[in-house]
Amino acid sequence: MTDNRHDDEILGKAYDAKLMKRLLTYVKPYKKYVFFAILLNIFVAALGPLRPYLTKIAIDDYIVNSNYNGLLLISLILFASLMLQAAIQYFLTFYTQYLGQKTLYDLRVQLFSHVQKLALKFFDKTPIGRIVTRTTNDVESLGELFSSGIVMVFSDVFIIIWILVFMFFMEVNLSLVTLSVLPILIYGTFLFRKKVRETYRDVRFHLARLNSYMQEHVTGMNVVQIFRKEKEEFDKFSQINADHRDANIRSIFYYAIFYPSVELISSAAIALIIWYGGGEIIQQQMTIGVLFAFIQYTEMFFRPIRDLSEKYNILQTSMASSERIFKLLDNKTFVNNPENPIPLKDVEGDISFKDVWFAYEDENYVLKNISFDIKAGETVAIVGHTGAGKSTIINLLTRFYDINKGKILLDGIDIKLLDKRELRKHISIVLQDVYLFSGTIKSNITMDNEEIPFEKVVQAAKIVGADKFIENLPKKYDEEVKERGATLSVGQKQLISFARALAYDPKILILDEATSSVDTDTEKLIQQAIENLLKGRTAVVIAHRLSTIQNADKIIVLHKGELKEIGTHQQLLAKRGIYYKLYQLQYKDQELVSTK
Amino acid sequence: MKNLRTLKKYFLKYQKKLFLGFIFILFSNAGTVYVPILMKDAINQLQQNTTTHTLLFYATLIVLSSLVAGIFRFLIRQTIIVVSREIEFDLRNDFWSHIQKLPLRYFQNNSTGNIMSHATNDINAVRNFIGPAVMYSIDTGIRLLIVVAIMLSLDWQLTLFALVPLPVLSYGVYRIMKLIHEKYTKIQEAFSVLTTVAQENFSGIRVIKSYVREVNEIQKWKNLSKDYLNKNMNLVRIQAWIMPILLIITGISIIVVIWIGGAKVISGTMNLGEITAFIVYLGILIWPVIAFGWVTNIVQQAEASMKRLNKIFAEPYEIDDSEQTDYSIKEIKGEVEFRNVSFRYSDVLPNVLNNINLKIPVGSTLAIIGHTGSGKTTMINLIPRLYDTTEGEVLIDGVNVKKIPLDILRKNIGLVPQESFLFSDTIFNNIGYGLREVSKEKVIEVSKIAQFDKDVETFPQGYETIVGERGITFSGGQKQRACLARALAIEPNILILDDSFSAVDTNTEEEILKNLKKYMKNRTSIIISHRISTVKDADNIIVLHEGKIAEQGTHDELVALGGIYADLHFKQLLEKELEELN
After folding, report:
1. Angstrom distance (rounded) from CA A213 to CA B202
2. In chain A, which residue's Cα lies nearest the Cα of B82?
3. What is the CATH number of domain A378-390+426-595?
4. HEC sequence for A479-491
5. What superfamily in CATH does domain A15-171+311-334 come from?
6. Do the chains contact at A275 and B70, CB–CB below 8 Å?
7. Do the Cβ atoms of B402 and B481 come closer than 8 Å?
8. How distant is the Cα of B297 from the closest Cα of chain A, in angstroms?
9. Which of B84, B94, B110, B211 has the most A C-beta neighbours within 10 Å, making it the best mutation to test the interface with A?
10. In angstroms, rounded to a whole number, what is the distance separating the alpha carbons of residues A293 and A49?
């Protein structure tokens, strides 16, 4: 068997005091409650072991002495203790689970809030799926530790202690005789846990193999079928399936040994009690009620011991998840805010790039020495071939990334000196890839901002011409939007994103025009919408539309990270440079369409 | 139970082992049930001045009968539970062998996650039925009968009093398990909402940051987390009942025995030994009673899962050899013809291909060019019968592909699909995938043709490097070239490349095309591409537009025509110029 199991997936991590200490800080806010739960546990743990003792009294004092009333009384006490235990048990389970869930909630919120603060650089490098797993599954796997692990350990330990207390109180010698089987039980249980853990790992490993095989081959089924490899693949599958079966059968073996053994051990204890205890009774050293009580105690030992052995497992799995969680929490990839930001009041909308250099990584500059000025109210189009650095300019303006050299100024102020949230509030971005969230049309326009009144939503939709299709939806603005806006057309999604930008009424608008083709009617609608959108604002547009570049006050031509040409449409065409080529490549066709 | 009838054949397969298990159940229960009787007798002896010798005798018997019970209990698990794993194995094998034969259409309509969930969750639910459910219901049923019979023979009145709470327990467990299942489903739903929202948030983080909605998103997350917490607590509220109910009902039975039984002892109609036996028997009965409620749930879930599995088993293969297959066809030369071919993915959808007529002679190269969605991939998928035509015929060497045995057809066609898919296996095995016997020379030869061997040399383990492992990720171009090598390895008489050079740079592409020309000399090649550079040397070029052949001819003819092809040609020249500009 090739052994390439991934350590962090399968193996539990060894106990780590540092991690545990950090995990316990999450319980701290609930210290008092946890303490109370532990106390209550110690008390309720006594109730179970109390009952065999009560049966002893029932037999020795009342049944043997023919006392009907006493028997009734003791039965009632038994009943009362039973009800009390049941009630406290219910409460405790609920209570500790609540504490656990609350702790998980805190952790989940902390993680999510932390991720919200991380810079885009982090998201560029980290697969989304991994971050999702950290905030959901990994937190979830700490559940058992927080809900039952910490508190219930005390319960298990104290049940055992109470049983011992009652036993020794009644009959020391018989206790010692009975307990002689206990080491075997404890050893057996922990050995079983260990073996089961190993086989369980084995089963998990084979299951993971089985699943990844199926996952992979369902995805690549066309390759299997094209090469007519169904038979060979089936044999391979069958082998993996058989390994999985055999691993399971191995684990059945341990269960098959363990449970009968536990029964045998408890029978042995009973046999000892009857033999030794019976002897004591014959010699009048002991009463028959004690024998009864002891027989019942033999049944009681097993559960807390088994539970304790499980706790160790919980601890191990928690270590692995918590390490991954803390690693994310310790990630400090932030775009830092200045300590004393210059307050932004009325923004005019003048933008300047001064000798800006930028690289996403190391010295691979994506923008080289870029300088230009945009006056308030101007529309500037940025054009360029793929990889020219157009989108990067947008990312810098909103301080999604910090530049390496040079300065970006808004109304003459370096944007590094502004509160980045303030800055972004004055800028709306419409991305090429329209991102819609599941929710309603309205919530997608307002982005759940309750400060934006409904009238403004409708107004924004009207201005960009989205109102017509929205009004035709069954629930209008409350129409459900599925994940990623799956039920809407490309054009509709764009119009919604325009309305979104407009609802925020920004001073500066950044627009990355979508390249995807839409039908002529929609195209006209979108062109009109863009025109309305840009009116009265400073606008930076990554242009893919002929109409946009024709209407722009200024066109900036980027090529391989450098600013090559700048001017109006006519000026640049006359130059017959890069812009002229780009024009023929990207925009000329649209001329044909629009004159048709 | 209708759906679970499918399992009959599996049960029959293992009937001997199951029968043996049944016998073991009988023996083991005999042992288990005998222990309390021994205890009863021992305790009764105690009150009649017995000797330690007699006590030792009883003690030994108790251990012995417990040992017998234990050995058979071990054997029960080794038969019945093992059989359940064996049936699970058979069922999963059958599932997979069926899935493999389903047409491409099925995989496009069903998500991988969905199929996976059947293969894991549903099969698991059925396994739970076969093993634990069957074992427990037989085992506990038998035990229940014996124990109750003995108890009744000891004292029928006390038995009735003591057993009254137990059916309530059984029903309670059934209800609670059902409720738990419901609540648990709700939790899973809430959890998946949580996951989706996290997914959406992190994917849309750019939008969120630019509209400064972080605080709001955190609030939203808090609300959902709270909801999730509440759903969890709803489950806890039910789950927390389990222990108390168990405690109360079994506790009450024991108290009843002590109280009423005690009174009977006082009045002399019963003895202490019998009370002991009763208490121990009650302990033995708890598990059967719980299992009863539990098993009912398992059966219900298994039934639902089996229904879903049966539905998959009922899916037709669609594309397979049939009575019109001509098994005398042993090889194909490679002349491909489309005759009045139309195709649509389903009856309610419009045609993707419209009346295509085309002949590709042996040894020639056909290039297909056209916009996304023009039907290029659909067209070539018809040749190896990944789909069958809706109207018209695809012929190879003048024979309808439906008549050619699927084995012969596909083993002679090397198709490089648009999405480069490699298995997580060594490069060597991936390239030799289509071959029965793979030789090192062959793999290197085709890798050289595909211009992939130089890349392989840079990998630490060369051809033994495992795809996608330990940070070795292939670039898109490397994957495409590996897939090409894989297709070439089977020495196909028809080679089909579905946009297989899109991530390969133009210089390498040129080399590959040159190599291919030699390799494919007497064979047929079909190349789909967006690039003029890829198709310009083809013997025949067709331009697909909205499912029809819009233009056809050689490169020079098409450029002269001044249509779609010429426009594309002009633009790509411009692009090249721009790229070369500094």
Report:
1. 29
2. A249
3. 3.40.50.300
4. CEECHHHCCCCHH
5. ABC transporter type 1, transmembrane domain (1.20.1560.10)
6. no
7. no
8. 22
9. B211
10. 9
- What residue of B is the nearest CA neighbor of A110? B218
What's the CA gap between A167 and A186, in Å, rounded? 18
What residues of chain A lie within 8 A of the CB of B263, using their CB?
68, 71
Paired tokens of B495: 């080679």
Task: Render A334-398 in DSSP notation, one character per residue.
Answer: --PPPSSPPP--S----EEEEEEEEESSTT-EEEEEEEEEE-TT-EEEEEESTTSSHHHHHHHHT
**CA-CA distance, A14 to A21, in Å (whole number)?**
14
Instruction: Report the amino acid identity of residue A356.
Output: V
d(CA A575, CA A330): 53
Mean pLDDT of chain A: 86
Which structure tokens are listed for A555?
A: 């066109």
Q: Per this entry, what is the length of chain B?
A: 582
Confidence of residue A14 (pLDDT cuts 50, 70, 90): low
Residue A222 has pLDDT above 80, yes or no: yes
Confidence band for B291, pLDDT divided at 50, 70 and 90: confident
How far A575 CA sits from the closest chain B CA (Å)?
15
pLDDT digits 0-9 by tens, B93-102: 999 999 988 9
**pLDDT tens column, A560-591:** 888 888 988 888 888 888 888 888 877 776 66
Mean pLDDT of chain B: 88
What single DSSP character describes residue A410? E
**Structural tokens at position B363:** 């040894």
For helices B272-313 and B165-203, give the axis angle rounded to 10 degrees.
40
Say yes or no: B56 contacts chain A, CB-CB below 8 A.
yes
Q: How far is CA A42 from CA A148, A154, A466, B427, B444, in A?
A: 15, 7, 66, 62, 72
The tokens for B245 are: 């109910």
Per DSSP, what are the bridge partners of residue B209?
none
**Which string of b and e fits B31-66 if b means at least 16 CB within 10 Å?**
bbbbbbbbbbebbbbbeeebeeebbbbbbebbbbbb
Chain A contact for B421 (CB, 8 A cutoff): yes
Q: Would you call B212 an interface residue with chain A, using a CB distance cutoff of 8 Å?
A: yes
Helices in A479-577 by DSSP H: which ranges?
490-503, 520-534, 546-551, 569-575
H/E stretch holding B527 reads strand B524-528
Q: How far apart are CA A27 and CA A151, in angstroms?
A: 11
Residue (of A512, A554, A509, A552) closest to A390 by Cα position: A512
First to last CA, chain B: 74
| pLDDT, greater one: A476 or B108 | A476
- Report the C-alpha gap between B245 and A483 in whole angstroms: 44
Q: What is the C-alpha to C-alpha distance for residues A195 and A255, in angstroms, rounded to an integer?
A: 10
Q: Across-strand partners of A408?
A: A353
Residue A440 parent element (H or E): strand A439-440
Token output for B293? 């409620």
Of the candidates B120, B188, B466, B302, which has an alpha carbon nearest to the alpha carbon of residue A208? B120
pLDDT of residue B542: 93
Alpha-carbon span A332 to A139, nearest angstrom: 20
* A345-399 pLDDT per residue, tens: 788 889 999 999 998 877 788 889 999 999 988 999 998 887 788 888 888 888 8
Which ranges in A465-519 belong to alpha helices (H)? 467-471, 490-503
ipTM of the complex: 0.84
The residue in chain A having the minimum alpha-carbon distance to the alpha carbon of residue B276 is A292
Q: Which token pair is B541?
A: 């070029």
Secondary structure class of B6 (helix, strand, coil): helix
Mean pLDDT of A56-66: 89
Distances (CA, A) of A523 to A210, A492, A495, A501: 49, 11, 11, 19
Counted residue by residue, chain A has a size of 596
